Amino acid sequence: MKKNILVIDANPKSSSFCGSLGTAYIASCHSGSDVHYLSLNTMQFNPDLSEGYSSEQRLEPDLVEFQAKLQWAEHIVLFIPVWWGGLPAKFKGLIDRTFLSGFAFRYQPNKTIPDKLLKGRTAEVVLTLDTPPFYYRYFQGDSVTKQLKHTILGFCGIKVVSMTYIGPIISSTTEQRAKWLKQIAKMAMK
């Protein structure tokens, strides 16, 4: 089935396993799909929302392009490293700066729940960890999943259809990484 797919490497590092996973996903996508790739590492913007949402902050060109690609996408695939149990600061800054009222959501007078302006899109999230996934999920609280599914993507109308946990990366062998790359390639073929 043809889809507009946006693949995002949300690791700020220039070289990472998230990038390798993204490449494996793209290489295995259905040939009828239109796929765009964004690497957080190459994006230039100030991740600090200095005044919060009380005043407008001009969007840098990379942020304008990111918003355009989000609007274009029907399906979003995120490859995100978990750092200190959470999202990398630059990726969180990307969200803070672009998931804005009027773009991603809109409050209506006398309503507490906003309109979800990115409704109709789906997302697959792949988290890479140096912690064993079961330990992160069941002992550390799985805060990234909760934040992404409910208070970021879900808040804006993007339905998370799968969460994949890969790790521990730090102690993985070449063989284990090859298995993870094959797992992601299969995910792309659905």
TrEMBL record:
What GO molecular-function term can you cite, just one? NAD(P)H dehydrogenase (quinone) activity
Q: Which UniProt keywords apply?
A: Oxidoreductase
Q: Which SUPFAM superfamilies match?
A: Flavoproteins
List each copy of the Flavodoxin-like fold domain by range: 3-185
Give the record's GO CC terms.
cytosol
UniProt lists the family membership as follows:
Belongs to the NAD(P)H dehydrogenase (quinone) family.
Q: What is this protein called?
A: Flavodoxin-like fold domain-containing protein
Organism source for this protein? marine sediment metagenome
